[in-house]
Each structure stands twice: as structure tokens, then as C-alpha cells.
């Protein structure tokens, strides 16, 4: 029998961005908050002199242990799903800070179009533009409502950026100016403008200057060391829950962090959650933490798994299209890119930062006419200078040959003479893309693994063909002597790495028949359970998800406080 602890106001499951924001916001208001994190605690000091590419980038020091818990994957329901035994397509963060510790820092807001995507698409192109098996839906929230929460997240992080000419109206400018503009970035900006496009420097959580945020947290400017993604920041320059919101929560005296606490189930009576069961992985003890509110703030896939194991909400059925938990799993449509080789010009590509770069949105969202195109939405096109670390980067003209004398000669020649333009495309939901519990494989605690059923569709292939072609045109305008364009997309596979931008499965919306959550990220069926994070996205946009994750977390924190004050379903 589980050991029962004293009841708290709020229990939080997972201490990344969403959990950290909710902990800080509610603890500041005087509520008692318990944060449960199954990994270990991390501090900035842990990353001092941590420029170890093999340890962090290749051997995944900051990631979940797949021998204890992983996922299974298949392309369709006719295939047998198999476990992901080694990291490839995406990386599941572990420990305090979660993916907010090892992310790059690109912090772009979703477009106003995204939040009303079904309505806006039909208004402009008619119902026939949406394929019959595409389960597209609006988010149940509009730009005017969500925009202030984007601003709050940016002010907390100190996001460095400049105005995006093709985006929605902002209530405030970015709190810090954009990062440095390198020769490579300048070349991208000039080449794009020569084609009549509208580039802007990327909004970055890597600080361009020293910054003090509204909570009084002070952080130093980025050193451009080139060790951001898959690494923690030794300077605290990259916005991370462990150097922003979690210290604020701790300082209140109202927040208790428990590490090595693996939550296995939400306990409820069918209408209301009463708390959570977790395993202390140091002792093996099973513990029940009662709470007035349960906030599920783990990673996308773990959020959905916890709901399904706890039998909360109606599981999605792809055959009937009914049910909501597991519905609208989406990813990111990657693969469109252009590599440029410069025979007589060198760039210092080994210096950089996670979100150092420039981008354009001319081919993103509905910023361009889709009338004669066989896809909707689009993607951001960008040139990023993240730092070409030596193990993972060896660009040659002959991509098929990765050994021998010629390969070594090309590697040396082009080490500083290649630039890459990439695109992140939006991922639309389909009836046959979903998450459920695997009937065969189990985790270390005997619970079923989560199963992903997903593949790229014709929508994705057409989008990549289009954006890849645009990237090639920009690279040519930049004056590259030789351009290799990638604009083809085969079936989705769990390898190689593509992006850690999994979304959906516990989505928000306007009614309980089509969604798990309302626009306060509150469960329709269990009013004291809130689930912010990318699992709430009804589709994935052509951007990194973190800015939208942060905005929804602030919205959820406001909703939790309202619930604690008045109870019931929020409107």
C-alpha cells in the first residue's frame, strides 16, 4: 500500500518549462506547490567546462534512459510496432529543466492563423482544400487572447529578437535586441531580400546582452561558444527553467521539489483527481501525494501515457474517429534544405549559438497563396549558425561517400566553406496518426509503453518539395558556387534525428467531443486537472514549439488559480 503524504494545493508532474512556470506563478501567489521530477536535479554549475560533444551530443547525457522507458513506433495499424532502443528521430529530456535545458533557444511565436486554422483555411479556399482524413480543428483560442501570454514568456526569458514583418501584432517589443549578425547571416539576409523576401533575425533565448527579468532574475549575455543544443549552458545565458522560473518558485518558500519521483498514475474518483502515485526510484517506495489540483507537465508523450494508464478521458479510436486522448499526434515536416559550397570564401561556422541566425516567413502559414498548391500551411526557412562541432559535422559534395582519401580531402576543404539553409514545415493531423498504449511492450514498472502510429503524407511531401525549392533559390542568390537541394521526403522512420517537436495527444479545443482540454488547458472531464505543453497542440506549426508551450503554461497557471478560487469548469 502506498505511503500517503499531507495534501498540497497543487502537485506538478514534471519540472521543465511548463512545470517550472506553473510552480513559480502559483508559489508567488502563496499556494503550496509540490513538484515531482523523475530525473535528478541540475544546476548551472553542473555544466561548467562541459563542452564534451561525445558525452552530450552523441551519448545523450541529458536524455531519458531508454532501457527503462521508451516508446514503440509503427507507420500504420497494419504494422507491428517495435520499441525505440536507441535515440534517433527525437530526444526525450530527463531531469529538472527537461527539454528546456538541452534546447537550442529558438523562440518563435506561432502565427495568428494557427489558432484558427480550420476556419481561416475554409474561409479562403473552401472546405475541399482540407483532405477528408485530415482532422484539422481550431484551438479554441484566438491570437488576441493568447498574445499577452507570449509576451509574458518572452519577458521572463529575455528573448533577443527583432520585429517579424509577416507576423501578428505584438503588445511589446522583444525585451533585448537581436543577437550578432555574422557574415553568413548577412549573406542570407541579402540574398533573401534580392528575391523580394522578408528576412528577420531569429528570436533567441540565448541573451544578446545582460538582462534582469521581471522576477528579478539576472543573467549574462551569450558567449557564442556553439554548445547549446543537447547541452546545458554553463553561463546561464540560455533561458532554461533551472536559471529562470524554478529559482523563483524556490525563493517563495511555498515550493517543494522532489527528484527521482516517477509518477505512475493519477488517482481519481471518475470526476475529480485526488492526487498522484509516484515511485521514489532511490528507495523503490510507492507514495501517494494528495492535491487539490494536478498539473500534468511532463513531456508530450509521457503526458498522454499517464492519462491513458490512469483511464482519464476517452481513448481515441482511429476506426470510428471518436474519443480524444491520443488524437491528433503530429510531428514536424523536416527534410527541405539547401547546402551551398563556396570555393573561394570561408566562414567561421564553429562559433555560434543555438538560435543565432535569420529566417523568413514568406512561405509559412497562410502568408502565400495556396490556391494552386496541393498542401496547406508551410514552414519557416532559416539559416542558423549553431556551431559546427567536429564529430557531427563533415559536409562534402559527395554525401554518399563518408570514408577514404577523397572524403578526408573534401572534409578539410569545405569545413568552413559550406552554409546550410533549412526549413521546418508544419505537421497536419490525420485520422490515422495517433497515440495509444502498446499491447505487448512494458516499461520498468510493468506499465504498457506508449505507441506512436505516424507517417508522412502527401501533404508533407508536397510541402517539402515546395520549401526545399525555395531554399535552393535563396542559396543561389547568396552566390554559392555549388548548391545541393533536398526537397524529397520518403516514409517517416524513427531514425535519423529530425526534431524533438512531438505534439498532440491531449489537445485543446472548443468542445469536449473533439478535445481533451479547454482553452485554460483544463480537462473537460476532470476540472482539477490541467495539462499545458505541446501535447495540447491540435496540429504543429512551421516553428519550434517552445514559445507556444510557454504561452500556454502562463495561461494554465492563470486557470489553476481561478479554479482554486472558484472551482468548476472555467469559461
TrEMBL record:
Instruction: Note one Pfam family from the annotation.
Output: GMC_oxred_C
Going by the entry's taxonomy, the superkingdom of the source organism is recorded as: Bacteria
Question: What is a GO molecular function of this protein?
Answer: oxidoreductase activity, acting on CH-OH group of donors
Q: Which residues form the Glucose-methanol-choline oxidoreductase C-terminal domain?
A: 436-553
Keywords (alphabetical) are: FAD, Flavoprotein, Oxidoreductase
The UniProt entry's sequence similarity note says: Belongs to the GMC oxidoreductase family.
Name-wise, this protein is: Gluconate 2-dehydrogenase (Acceptor)
Native organism: Schinkia azotoformans LMG 9581
